[in-house]
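Whiteboard transcription, Tuesday session. T.W. wrote the structure tokens on the left side:
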């Protein structure tokens, strides 16, 4: 970090990146202060409720008390919140922890860009990353997106190293992130591809995979002994599959589909089944629905892809206005209110849209380099994007995999300026 600061004093681009990063941090500090008591989204309330219950009952989530829950959701995050509450007697300190993680993520984006491209690309990537509005508001949320993303990208940076103990630390990050979101597999697979491309010895794979699977196996066996169910992550896969493959399915979320008796995802007397049994039933029914409705399922894929990339205002929701969409619908002039809301969403997303255009430009100009070492990071985006074709797509879906796009966009910009100077 000291070396980076020294370089900033000598390099104008580095200085601009440093100033941009400082402004970015200040904006987040101001937002945390002004929105200290902001509204909470339903998922955030649910995480806190479960964390408080676990704390008050001196258990680790999920416990026997959760056996008949509809599903388990991000146990790693819930237990983190329980620990935070045990120490600070409040969840609000998480906003400051989120800020620190956000700063670390920004540096890791620079580091990855520098490693795969150059320092100048890293500086441009920092500038672009800081302009993405959703990154300003991320620290305010208690959602699973940010902590899991921090562990994802930290694990990836560590697995780029040559020292064995860094690989082990990367594996630990990946394992911990799996307890929050199984989508870490996109990063794990990309780390393996990086090792193959760089002809790493078998010892690297051992250092990565043995701790990763060992930790998750240990966690799974612990819960199997405690509650009778082997579990080391969210039991929400079946619910997500059923969400995207049922009689009322569409591209976006609908949290009531499973409550309708006529729906294929409806489970009679579901309250008498444990979460693992419900998860298994939903998986089977979702697969059967796809088999029975292949064309309808396929037609939803482009919609889900578009939805996951359409907007970048997700982190601004439920901060100063609770349920803006619901309020617009209930207003005296719904059409006018919805138009205003959509214009606002578009304006917030403009920097993100510019980044997407720069990314597309860079891919076109540097298409011959996509299948080189520089293109390895694109596997993260590719694997993640693939899931949006199959499962529930939300506007925040792209949050954990846009940094490779930002870096490639920065590569195109840096090349353009370099050519203009020569």
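and on the right, the sequence the group agreed on:
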């Amino acid at each position: 970090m000291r070396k980076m600061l020294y370089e900033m004093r000598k390099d104008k681009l580095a200085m601009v990146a440093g100033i941009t990063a400082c402004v970015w941090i200040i904006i987040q500090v101001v937002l945390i202060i002004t929105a200290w008591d902001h509204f909470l989204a339903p998922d955030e309330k649910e995480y806190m409720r479960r964390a408080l219950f676990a704390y008050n009952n001196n258990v680790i989530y999920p416990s026997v008390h959760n056996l008949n829950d509809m599903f388990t959701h991000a146990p790693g995050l819930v237990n983190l919140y329980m620990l935070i509450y045990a120490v600070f007697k409040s969840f609000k300190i998480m906003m400051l922890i989120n800020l620190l993680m956000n700063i670390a993520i920004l540096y890791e984006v620079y580091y990855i860009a520098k490693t795969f491209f150059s320092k100048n690309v890293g500086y441009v990537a920092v500038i672009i990353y800081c302009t993405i509005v959703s990154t300003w508001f991320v620290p305010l949320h208690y959602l699973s997106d940010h902590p899991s993303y921090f562990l994802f990208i930290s694990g990836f940076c560590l697995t780029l190293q040559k020292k064995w103990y860094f690989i082990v630390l990367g594996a630990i990050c990946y394992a911990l992130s799996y307890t929050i979101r199984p989508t870490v597999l996109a990063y794990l697979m990309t780390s393996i591809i990086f090792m193959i491309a760089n002809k790493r010895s078998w010892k690297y794979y051992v250092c990565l995979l043995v701790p990763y699977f060992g930790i998750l196996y240990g966690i799974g066996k612990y819960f199997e002994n405690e509650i009778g169910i082997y579990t080391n992550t969210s039991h929400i896969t079946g619910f997500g599959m059923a969400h995207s493959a049922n009689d009322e399915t569409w591209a976006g979320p609908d949290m009531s589909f499973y409550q309708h008796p006529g729906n294929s995802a409806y489970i009679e007397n579901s309250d008498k089944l444990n979460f693992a049994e419900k998860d298994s039933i939903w998986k089977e029914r979702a697969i059967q629905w796809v088999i029975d409705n292949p064309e309808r399922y396929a037609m939803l894929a482009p919609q889900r892809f578009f939805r996951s990339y359409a907007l970048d205002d997700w982190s601004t929701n439920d901060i100063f206005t609770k349920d803006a969409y619901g309020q617009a619908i209930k207003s005296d002039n719904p059409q006018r209110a919805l138009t205003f809301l959509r214009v606002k969403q578009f304006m917030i997303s403009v920097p993100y849209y510019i980044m997407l255009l720069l990314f597309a430009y860079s891919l076109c100009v540097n298409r011959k380099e996509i299948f080189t070492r520089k293109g390895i990071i694109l596997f993260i985006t590719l694997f993640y994007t693939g899931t949006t074709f199959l499962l529930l797509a939300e506007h925040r879906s792209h949050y954990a995999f846009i940094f490779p796009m930002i870096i490639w966009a920065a590569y195109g910009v840096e090349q353009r300026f370099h050519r203009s100077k020569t």
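Someone added at the bottom: The radius of gyration is 22 Å.
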